[in-house]
Amino acid sequence: MTDQPLYAPIPLQWVGPLRFSGNVIDGEEVSVPLATYESPLWPSVKRGAKVSAFVDGGIRATLVDERMSRSVYFRAEHAGAALAAAEDLRTRREQMQEVVSGASRFARLVDLHVQHAGNLLFVRFEFTTGDASGHNMVTLAADHLMPWILQLHPELEYGSISGNFCSDKKATAVNGILGRGKNVVTELTIPRRIVQRLLKSTPEAIARLNTEKNLIGTTLAGGLRSANAHYANMLLAFYLATGQDAANIVEGSQGITQAEVRDGDLYFACNLPSLIVGSVGNGKGAGLETVEENLRRLGCREEREPGANARRLAVLCAGAVLCGELSLLAAQTNPGELMAAHVKIERNAR
Amino acid sequence: MTDQPLYAPIPLQWVGPLRFSGNVIDGEEVSVPLATYESPLWPSVKRGAKVSAFVDGGIRATLVDERMSRSVYFRAEHAGAALAAAEDLRTRREQMQEVVSGASRFARLVDLHVQHAGNLLFVRFEFTTGDASGHNMVTLAADHLMPWILQLHPELEYGSISGNFCSDKKATAVNGILGRGKNVVTELTIPRRIVQRLLKSTPEAIARLNTEKNLIGTTLAGGLRSANAHYANMLLAFYLATGQDAANIVEGSQGITQAEVRDGDLYFACNLPSLIVGSVGNGKGAGLETVEENLRRLGCREEREPGANARRLAVLCAGAVLCGELSLLAAQTNPGELMAAHVKIERNAR
Amino acid sequence: MTDQPLYAPIPLQWVGPLRFSGNVIDGEEVSVPLATYESPLWPSVKRGAKVSAFVDGGIRATLVDERMSRSVYFRAEHAGAALAAAEDLRTRREQMQEVVSGASRFARLVDLHVQHAGNLLFVRFEFTTGDASGHNMVTLAADHLMPWILQLHPELEYGSISGNFCSDKKATAVNGILGRGKNVVTELTIPRRIVQRLLKSTPEAIARLNTEKNLIGTTLAGGLRSANAHYANMLLAFYLATGQDAANIVEGSQGITQAEVRDGDLYFACNLPSLIVGSVGNGKGAGLETVEENLRRLGCREEREPGANARRLAVLCAGAVLCGELSLLAAQTNPGELMAAHVKIERNAR
Amino acid sequence: MTDQPLYAPIPLQWVGPLRFSGNVIDGEEVSVPLATYESPLWPSVKRGAKVSAFVDGGIRATLVDERMSRSVYFRAEHAGAALAAAEDLRTRREQMQEVVSGASRFARLVDLHVQHAGNLLFVRFEFTTGDASGHNMVTLAADHLMPWILQLHPELEYGSISGNFCSDKKATAVNGILGRGKNVVTELTIPRRIVQRLLKSTPEAIARLNTEKNLIGTTLAGGLRSANAHYANMLLAFYLATGQDAANIVEGSQGITQAEVRDGDLYFACNLPSLIVGSVGNGKGAGLETVEENLRRLGCREEREPGANARRLAVLCAGAVLCGELSLLAAQTNPGELMAAHVKIERNAR
């Protein structure tokens, strides 16, 4: 047994370029790095990227919201006492921001949500966290807020610094409803002939498959906000390549794919309401240099206002997700194509 | 832009040894490799491992079930036709096994489940897959079964090779209920003084936190079979270190932690019903050698009956999950300990 | 305060006739009784019924499965002991049927499913229950099975006669996946001109609304197998009118509506996998006579093989659900129609 | 077939009295009417009521929040346009309140929440609705808001007056997280000897059963915010007796039961975050008089500030839920008691 520095080298390829427009990146073509043991992922995303290059404006990516959450919880004598404390806290947003500012230069308290369970009081703090994904920042902020609250409300007792109403790396509904990480919508309207030529499919076939598989199939499976084919694959590969906490693909993969025929063309959209990425605080030890280099190549090491590099990163990640999702759905409209592709690529890899 | 072989090097440490007993590994001490950018994970699992060494028999790990699934779907004229086809298929298990055998030497069809949605027929095939995690094997099997079924039932139309009732890498309920991957239960009964000395906590505090955070807190968050603190972290690190398809932490993280005071001691258990691991077909390209070496050190490259190495791997993984889960919960019973540990470790890492 | 017999009189109307075909009712027109405080429900179902009368074959209703469940749970020393007991029980299906036969003439054990949680063993017994909905029958059966199992396995300890893995009157995924009650699919293919004339809408508008509201909207809401507009309303009204345990609308309402344009016409389907109804053991006291009369008028008091009257009842109920669902969706495609209808009907009621 | 006025007479009993304290009812004893075909419900609630009478202060009921929701949805050209419209609407709360005031004297817009799905914009309006449960009031309000918004934002297109993000009578997570109806917490701390004498159980047995059945068992079943034994039964009976829209038991039943041993006594709490009741607008036609009389006897026909009668009603309902929940859990700690009680009561009923 040893503690010497080792590493697991995950194969990485740059894929692209993807063409982007929208409220974060407008009019650029950017390639993305994907680190994965699953080599069929690269040509899959590549095909989607190629489609984006043929579309006017490419992938329209809209960042809708951003925040990072941490929920703590307290024990009160009874629900009445918990309610009184909650009502008091709601009036002290500014004071709480002061406490938070003592813990972090970047953390801004943007909202808080409360849940009662008998005498327990769960408080979900929601922050913007600059260019960091914010796990540590919000924990540190909560770590400053808790003693401050306990001093203010001696009738409350410490429950835990994390009460699972955050909710970190677990399959829950709260993150999609209240927000956690970046909320990014990506859209692509693909001319019919591009669908036919590059995706070997039709707008009708893809739209139908999306309804039957992603919407109805997931519902049958007892799915929770997870109407997609394989967001998790692209998220994992992008997260590993850019030094993210990749266990956040658990909530990150909870999103909805839409596909619709519009005037004979294909409208295709992916919704990622819980995209947890940061452009600082990434990677560690052996992985650090690779990650730094990748972020630099992605243009996320520029001098920008706080948070802008992270938002750029989120949008690039969301673009990769859309490309892979589109490509797999197209493949699954054709009997046999999926497996044939797998077999061929796996063989080439050997 | 280039396609030359690159990799993301994820820092890796061996942690342990963990002591095991149960129906797969009985009476061994084994260390486990964890690859992660999140360095606090190592000491966390290490602390749990130390606890296991102080407990008679260590971690009792019980493998309860194993199977890998793939759901396909068909379109019928109407639900009546879909029902007739489903009833016919249920009588042809042996014939289907023959078809499957043509696709794979190892795949054994162990069950099938059907869902109806109007005229759509979703069929979830469930296989044992030897030492492989089985993603490709079951896709290949489904790829053989579909044309065979379509020939047998010309009234059915191809829907898709994957209908999301599988369900792969998505937050759903079906995998926990019907099984996907290995189902492993790990248990540890920890003497009170060990809880106090090594975990700086008490059985009462840990049991209470588990109820309030993992069970109640997750329920408040709208959680789906996810009553735990952070299974995803350990799963990701173990999966990356052993060449698994780490996006399967999405369903893998859906499990339940139990904690109970028994005669003054702490009974602690983790349930992982969807642990998708294999000891063959792991890693690719640059990662291959590291993965091979890690599997060898874990004792998963021995000559055993098909499936035995994979079951061993699953149990080792589940043990790591229990160690990290126990350690974090213990830490969260103490105000401030969690953050202090984070700050210290992060600083040391720089 | 008094205990003298009182009653809440729920207004009831007969609506229809609905036209049916399928594997339970073939070629009949039947009206259905709906008891509700919400008077707009009647014209809504009425409109759907009228549509069914204009369609060849009317509502195609397919009964896909039937079973009633009860889960018990036991405590074992540890998971290994729980697993051994579970494996033993799986081999004793015939003996268990004998025990069950001592409790009920009609209950037939058709399947059992097991869940492990640490040392806990949950067993979900699944029975057919003749013409009864089966709540009491399966409780009685479980009440006979538990002591028999505890005697056979003295290493197990009584947990509870109901372990919530049943799962009765709660929002869970298990009932849709494993089945509880009757599983009925209803389908209607409506000519475009009927959609236009009777529903004041188009196949395209209804299909689109279904995708955006029932599938996407419910997914956004964190829905669990509940992709419909208002199944609960029709279920409640039918259950009250026919003496059912109407709290079962909780799981009953978890179903999926489909709508698709086919050759210019509208394909519309409702899926009710957890329809818990019985034609015997219904109503009590003051309600008994009304219920009896309603069941008689529905043709569910005929001499048939055991279970046939209950299946007929389930199909009639499912038909009413389809009619109301179709009508509301059509209304919601038109801005203002819904509210106008509400206002008018409420006024007329006064 | 006829449309003449009929009714389904649901047997009704008054049960109690229940003793109450808290922020709505303080220091009263009130009996509650329960209308149900399931006669064992009455003695079950009765037993809980008797317990409440023996406890100092009785049931502590805390009303935590109240609001009624309706979500509409719009189609935009793309997500960017949807985002711009959403941001604009957030600044127009006062103008929207003016529009709402034109629709209803009582409706007050208290919050709004937005969800994006590609180009779709879902807006969840949240109102207080005085003494009404508010279904019609919020529909009417939405019916006024939609044309106003469409005029203000001609770039938006009508989607639907109800987008299922409300979410009405469906198993979703949104209502518990954002609130729908009254949010009521009820608590009871029961001396050990009362648990033993009246409930024939112990605090330890009930706490353990609650953890294993309601929390773990429901989690295994893939439950969604539904950690209870049978809230739906009491809700249905109370709703029918007081003229509510009883289909709202679907979301109403999604709540969490807590049970904990405190200093040897039993702390028992029920959480009902989606209790949809009103004291006006109830019942119709034949049911009207009974409902009126019941509301009068409950003290919900007094002259109070708007909303106060409805809050009183919610608390009374929540008290009945707690009584029935406590009683059933206690019964299930004893092998055989449950079934024996059923058999006896059913026999007496005949």
From TrEMBL, chains A, B, C, D:
Gene3D superfamilies: 3-hydroxy-3-methylglutaryl-coenzyme A Reductase, Chain A, domain 2, Hydroxymethylglutaryl-CoA reductase, class I/II, NAD/NADP-binding domain. Transmembrane segments: none annotated. Pfam families: HMG-CoA_red. InterPro entries: HMG_CoA_Rdtase, HMG_CoA_Rdtase_cat_sf, HMG_CoA_Rdtase_NAD(P)-bd_sf, HMG_CoA_Rdtase_sub-bd_dom_sf. PROSITE patterns: HMG_COA_REDUCTASE_4. It comes from the Bacteria. Keywords: Oxidoreductase. One of its GO terms (biological process) is coenzyme A metabolic process. GO terms for molecular function: hydroxymethylglutaryl-CoA reductase (NADPH) activity. Belongs to the HMG-CoA reductase family. PANTHER family: 3-HYDROXY-3-METHYLGLUTARYL-COENZYME A REDUCTASE (PTHR10572). This is Hydroxymethylglutaryl-CoA reductase. It comes from Rothia kristinae.
